[in-house]
Amino acid sequence: KATVSVLYCNNIRNRMLSKENIAEVAGKVFTEEEFTILVQDLKTVIKLDYECPEKPTALTYGTFWKAEGSKDINAIESYITKISNSDAFKKVTDGAQYEGAEWWWQEQDPSDEPKEFHTDCDLHLLPDESNCKVHPAVSSVFYCSQEGGPTCVYSQEMVAGDLVPAKPEKAVLSFPEPSKLLLFHGTLWHGVLAPLTPIKALRLTLLVNWWPKRPNGPCDPPPSFATLNRLGTEGGALSFTRPVHRVATNEDAFLHTLPASLLTQIHNGVVELHFE
Q: Are 106 and 206 spatial neighbours (Cβ–Cβ below 8 Å)?
């Protein structure tokens, strides 16, 4: 039988946050006008249906790259610049330096299943044909609608193919709210839970990961992505907070499912669950 060797190539440890706090959240990142411009630009890009050129060594693809300090070509890149340059982001990431950010989007139609649980990564082939797996330093979710179930981030990392610890001690649930931003460690196990009620419209999120070194998968955005829209700073200073609502539960989180009876109690905002 042929075997595939997977090497976990990044030995960096996230300086962002602490073990006691696995996520940060910022609400109402933009004014209504800025938010509308950003979502319009994102939908414009989606309609282009652009496919990145194939890379022989890339096993993950379909995302785009925004180099740190490069000129913004649309409101999406302007959004990344605004977050990256904010004092609040620099504070929660302990002033870490990044070569740039990878970005893409997720659409969930009413008939679609929620996004499965996973860890964000870049997977590429090495010269000896083994696979190199690298995780970003920081992952994020920006909500463009209020539809769908909450993002769930568990206090588990994928280490050499196994989740560590085997059973999480805690989880953060972030329910969709327009113009809300969720940040968390780039190595953490996360996904989207089923909504309490069927969604009636598109669930749209803009996803950005920050990397200390450019990964292999993302491609440069094409000239057709340039809308020249920019986002100002009139939305006020960006501010991140930790989840303030904490709920203790003895529900078994091993299978990464949570019952509707529990979600009904915490159906809004951002909540940190502690498994006892």
A: no
Backbone angles phi, psi at 197, to 5 degrees: -125, 150
On the question of pLDDT at 117 being above 60, the answer is yes
Residues paired with residue 249 on neighbouring β-strands, in sequence order: 275
pLDDT in tens, 194-230: 887 888 899 999 999 999 999 999 999 999 999 988 8
- CA dist 204 and 145 (Å) reads 6
Q: Which residues make Cβ contacts (< 8 Å) with residue 228, sequence separation at least 6?
A: 73, 74
Residue whose tokens read 């329910």: 175
Confidence of residue 130 (pLDDT cuts 50, 70, 90): confident
Strand 64-67, strand 100-108: pairing: antiparallel
pTM: 0.88
Question: Which of 144, 140, 155 is closest to 272 using CA atoms?
Answer: 155
Q: Is 264 exposed, middle or buried (0-12, 13-18, 19+ CB in 10 A)?
A: exposed
Chain position carrying tokens 């989740």: 163
Kindly tell me the burial class for residue 228, based on how many C-beta atoms sit within 10 Å of its own C-beta (0-12, 13-18, 19 or more): exposed
> Do 139 and 215 contact (CB within 8 A), yes or no?
no
181 neighbors 139 (Cβ within 8 angstroms)? no
The amino acid that residue 60 corresponds to is T
As a whole number of Å, the CA-based R_g of the chain is: 18
Residue 274 tokens read as: 């502690």
Give the angle subtended at the CA of 58 by the CAs of 56 and 61, to the nearest 5°.
120
For residues 247 and 221, is the Cβ–Cβ distance under 8 A? no
Residues 112, 106 contacting (CB under 8 angstroms): no
Is residue 105 within 8 A of residue 46, CB to CB? The reply is yes
Residue with tokens 């990878």: 102
